[in-house]
Specification:
Elements lengths: L3 E6 L3 H6 L6 H15 L3 E6 L13 H11 L27 E4 L10 H7 L4 E7 L1 H14 L3 E10 L3 H11 L5 E3 L1 H6 L6
Pfam family, one: Isochorismatase
Keywords: Hydrolase
Organism: Streptomyces tremellae
Length: about 190
């Protein structure tokens, strides 16, 4: 029998703050989290995080190299220990006992123990949500597909700074490897846990 997990990815304070164009996003996502918990579907939170001093970040990495540079200039803490911006947004914060996986790059699998955690829990199906559609969701979907997970993307559980990019990915690209549904439809198909 298939066992699913909901991945809530990169919904961290500083990241949410960059994508404030949809005030209904967090309440929708909270609805997905609540539905998963009520059905007994594991909720796994994925965050980006680095050690103090960012030794994992190469200056050749265009995206993460900028973060390390800003930290070096004192302009940011850059998702390192003690950075309040690295905290999971309180609207979807993990409950005691929920797994939090820390990644080092864009994909939820990159530099993390996510695959090991999923395999140990017997999870073979993933439901993806997070910020941004063109970042963590796209990268994680591609890698998870290559690892033979069954995939569902919560179209309105993902957010991107470019609505057209979001539309193309969820409407044209993702359906080649995943079922793409809205949160309400996905939640309606869940069975409550006994």
């Amino acid at each position: 029998m298939a066992k699913s997990a909901l991945l809530v990815m990169d919904v961290q304070q500083d990241i949410v703050g960059r994508f404030d164009g949809d005030p209904a996003y967090l309440p929708r996502l909270r609805g997905a989290v609540d539905a998963a918990r009520a059905a007994g579907t594991p909720v796994i939170h994925v965050v980006v995080g680095f050690r103090a001093g960012h030794p994992e970040v190469s200056p050749r990495n265009k995206a993460f190299g900028r973060i390390a540079g800003a930290v070096a200039e004192g302009a940011a803490r850059g998702f390192a220990p003690g950075d309040p911006g690295a905290a999971i947004h309180p609207d979807v914060a993990p409950l005691d006992g929920e797994i939090v996986v820390t990644k080092k790059r864009v994909s939820a699998f990159a530099g993390s123990d996510l695959d090991m955690v999923l395999r140990a829990q017997g999870v073979d199906s993933l439901v993806l949500a997070g910020i941004a559609t063109s970042g963590v969701v796209l990268s994680t979907l591609r890698q998870a597909a290559d690892l033979d997970f069954r995939l569902t993307v919560l179209e309105d559980g993902c957010l991107d700074g470019d609505p057209e990019v979001h539309r193309v990915l969820t409407g044209k690209v993702f359906p080649g490897q995943a079922e793409v549904v809205r949160i309400e439809e996905w939640a309606a198909g869940l069975s409550p846990s006994a």
